[in-house]
Write a structure and sequence with these properties.
This protein is α/β, with parallel strands linked by helices. The protein is built from 10 helices and 13 strands.
Length: about 280
């Protein structure tokens, strides 16, 4: 049985690229057809055998908590109707999972958001899903694939994919030796390099398995670009000790933090699930 029982969801960001839609609604609640992004992430974690969902929120994010809670008025209103089955998914999540929440009072980067989740995680290895990265697969979900790899290597695992060099400055980038097909022993990582300085086009995307020493490393990590605590800088410390694996996952990722990626994900889901 895997040692991974909790998944952390950093969900405190403002979602400014989707204004004015995200002025009062969390970006994680933007729907891909009929389900919000964060629900797809929770379902992916459940597919990997995880039942503990830890969410780092911020001001104006109560809709996330409400979504995974019971709504007595709504459920009473549609009880016995054809619409009642539409709540089966959230009811299943509510029955199977435990949710815990904390707030990130200041937006100081992804590394800081993960550090804020320490009280929810404890001294255990854990998964991280960034709901902006919506992943679809033919077989097991991306996180399930990564947990199998963690069971083998017992170290930090980061999901990676090849991206066009003109987009590389939006990502953390790895370099390393390919130990097996699609599996890299990471030796170096750079946060948002320019295309001219990037050593590879292998970009880290929003799926991680992290070992608990990451919290102490983050506490001692100085702010990087934009004055934020970068997770990539903390991961580099682990990588220098030979404790980070990069994994080219099986599946397709949509960058739903961008408008183009969000529309592409919506169209793909609409067609693939026969809503037409």
């Amino acid at each position: 049985m895997t040692a991974i029982s909790k998944c952390l969801f950093p969900a405190a960001g403002y979602g400014t690229r989707f204004l004015p839609a995200t002025k009062a609604m969390p970006k994680e609640m933007l729907p891909i057809v009929t389900k919000p992004l964060i629900q797809y992430g929770v379902e992916e974690a459940m597919d990997a055998g995880i039942t503990g969902m830890a969410i780092v929120t911020g001001r104006g994010k109560r809709a996330i908590e409400d979504h995974f809670d019971i709504s007595y008025e709504l459920e009473h209103q549609i009880a016995g109707s054809d619409q009642e089955s539409l709540l089966d998914g959230t009811r299943h999540i509510r029955d199977k999972c435990r949710f815990s929440y904390t707030r990130q009072a200041e937006m100081k980067g992804l590394g800081h958001a993960i550090l804020m989740g320490q009280s929810l995680i404890g001294n255990n290895p854990f998964a991280v899903i960034l709901a902006d990265d919506y992943c679809v697969t033919e077989g097991p979900g991306v996180l399930a694939q990564m947990i199998r790899l963690y069971d083998q290597y017992r170290c930090t695992i980061v999901a990676i994919e090849e991206v066009p060099m003109e987009e590389i400055s939006r990502y953390g980038v790895i370099e390393g030796e390919e130990a097996e097909e699609g599996i890299f022993r990471v030796s170096n990582m750079v946060e948002k390099p320019s295309p001219d300085s990037a050593s590879s086009n292998l970009a880290i995307i929003g799926r991680y398995i992290l070992t608990p020493d990451i919290f102490q490393i983050l506490e001692n990590t100085a702010p990087g670009k934009s004055g934020e605590i970068q997770l990539t800088d903390a991961l580099l410390t682990q990588a220098h000790a030979g404790n980070v694996i990069g994994y080219k996952f099986d599946g397709r990722r949509f960058d739903c933090g961008s408008i183009d990626g969000f529309i592409e994900a919506t169209n793909h889901t609409y067609k693939s699930r026969n809503y037409e």
